[in-house]
Q: What sequence folds into this?
């Protein structure tokens, strides 16, 4: 069911018009036609109220042309300004109601200031104000006070236009900054999701491939003496790995749909993770508070290290995992006695890069490389909060 929203109020429409670039409006001609109609009503009322200088037929025609030109004020602000000056000059020379065309002229001048540069605004303002002062001074019916008052209104229209233009420019820059910050957060979140999915799927698929190879080896070595127990264990291990991968993938997708971060993996899940890879685990973190971010980083580093060991170390390899707290940091070591990545391996992927980024994300370090006695080792050091913070927590 579609959500019903209340129509915007008059104040909201005014604010929206002030915030929006006049050249980017959805229906500029229609909006300007409505504005021109309102100004025509205002100018006509002022002209008709001046019984002494009420316009004649030609005066009314000039006044109508003046407001009609405003329909194209956004697309041709300078052209409308020139046409406005001509109509006002002719109207004033006929000695009609002098205050009637002022609202329309001010609005045309405001448009020039709101849509152009400061240099163009100053040039147009000087020309228009100078022309108005000269024209009104040469006409004996205008006194010096009227000249100053009219010039002040024209300058006020220019200042208002410049202020609105600067305000819109400021809003556009703020919107661009907010958009860039939003794009950066989205990119960071996508990177985090990509890492999680890579760690999850690469680990599970690698284990499934190894178990499948074991089952195929048992079938191919001696088909006459089929080891049903070994095949059953391999298939059960594949099924368990698939279930675990599906469950964790479902959790990740649920977090994405809910737009929440959800629970992070931590050290509690290490025994099951290491057991699935048939590795040895030494976990020594009793009584040590491990922050959630550090625990999640440690879990993913161990997971990716086991994936690489299963993939590259070769059959019959012993993998040892040690996680212990020492000297204010969580030390993680994953070592194997296999052959390590060989020359026949494909181009390096994102596993080691991702482990390094996860370690750096919590202020830690990561070291990877061959062991002196053969095999490969991943060693990470992730900082832990000092004891004072643990006690206060």
A:
């Amino acid at each position: 069911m579609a959500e019903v929203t209340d129509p915007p109020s008059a104040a909201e429409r005014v604010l929206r018009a002030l915030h929006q670039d006049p050249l980017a409006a959805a229906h500029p001609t229609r909006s300007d036609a409505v504005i021109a109609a309102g100004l025509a009503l205002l100018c006509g009322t002022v002209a008709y109220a001046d019984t002494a200088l009420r316009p004649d037929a030609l005066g009314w025609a000039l006044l109508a042309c003046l407001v009609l030109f405003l329909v194209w004020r956004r697309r041709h602000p300078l052209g409308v300004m020139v046409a406005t000056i001509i109509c006002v000059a002719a109207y004033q020379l006929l000695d009609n109601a002098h205050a009637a065309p002022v609202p329309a002229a001010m609005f045309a001048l405001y448009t020039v200031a709101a849509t152009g540069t400061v240099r163009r605004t100053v040039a147009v303002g000087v020309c228009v104000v100078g022309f108005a002062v000269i024209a009104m001074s040469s006409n004996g019916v205008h006194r010096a006070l009227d000249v100053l008052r009219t010039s002040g209104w024209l300058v006020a229209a220019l200042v208002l236009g410049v202020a609105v233009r600067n305000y819109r420019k400021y809003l556009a820059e703020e919107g661009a900054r907010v958009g860039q910050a939003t794009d950066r957060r989205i990119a960071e979140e996508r990177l985090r999701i990509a890492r999680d999915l890579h760690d999850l799927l690469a680990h599970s698929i690698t284990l499934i491939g190894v178990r499948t190879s074991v089952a195929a080896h048992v079938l191919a070595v001696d088909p006459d003496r089929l080891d049903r127990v070994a095949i059953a264990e391999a298939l059960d291990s594949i099924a368990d790995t698939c279930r675990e991968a599906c469950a964790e993938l479902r959790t990740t997708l649920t977090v994405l749909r809910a737009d929440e971060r959800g629970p992070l993996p931590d050290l509690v899940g290490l025994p099951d993770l290491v057991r699935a890879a048939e590795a040895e685990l030494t976990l020594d973190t009793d009584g040590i508070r491990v922050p959630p971010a550090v625990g999640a980083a440690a879990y993913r580093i161990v997971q990716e290290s086991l994936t690489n060991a299963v993939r590259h170390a070769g059959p019959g390899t012993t993998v040892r995992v040690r996680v212990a707290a020492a000297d204010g940091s969580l030390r993680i070591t994953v070592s194997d006695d296999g052959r390590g990545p060989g020359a026949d391996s494909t181009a390096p992927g994102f596993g080691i890069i991702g482990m390094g980024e996860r370690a750096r994300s919590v202020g830690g370090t990561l070291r990877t490389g061959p062991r002196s006695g053969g095999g490969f080792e991943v060693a990470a050091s992730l900082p832990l909060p000092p004891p004072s913070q643990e006690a206060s927590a």
Summary: The chain has twelve helices and five strands. The first strand starts at residue 280 and ends at 284. Strands lie at 280-284, 319-326, 329-336, 365-370, 376-383. Residues 144-221 form the longest helix (78 residues).
